[in-house]
Amino acid sequence: MSRVKGGIMAQKRRRNILTQVKGYRFGRSKKKRQAREAIYHAQLHAFAHRKDKKNDFRSLWISRLNAALKLNGLRYSKFINTLQEKNIKLDRKVMSTLAKDRPGVFSRIILELR
């Protein structure tokens, strides 16, 4: 069997790695080994921060709801408890959007709960 040199495939692999690190600084954008290491770490952090983003948005929605509820003389904990007792299935994202963009509609929802 004849010997096959891997030059073309090695170039292709190197090119793929270096296109992923486009915009990185110094050796991480030019050297294959450093670039591969940079990709590995970047992917680890990206995964973790995608998970953190969900918690960040939930706390933002809760803060918005609490601010809107204080204007109407309620507390967040009492409001959520009342929603659960009356079996209303509006999530925090929808309610905070209503409170921010349509305060009249949100105040009508509060009046219905009382």
Based on the model shown, name its key terms.
single chain, 114 residues, mainly alpha, c-terminal domain of poly(a) binding protein, 5 helices
What does this structure look like?
The chain is mainly alpha-helical. It has a single domain (8-113), classed as c-terminal domain of poly(a) binding protein (Orthogonal Bundle), CATH 1.10.1900. Helices cover 75% and strands 0% of the residues. It is rod-shaped and about 85 Å long. The protein starts with 6 loop residues before the first helix and ends with a helix. The model has no long low-confidence stretch (mean pLDDT 92).
Net shape:
rod-shaped
Beginning-to-end CA distance, first to last residue: 84 Å
Averaged pLDDT: 92
- Give start-end ranges of low-pLDDT stretches: none
CATH superfamily: Ribosomal protein L20, C-terminal domain
Number of domains: 1
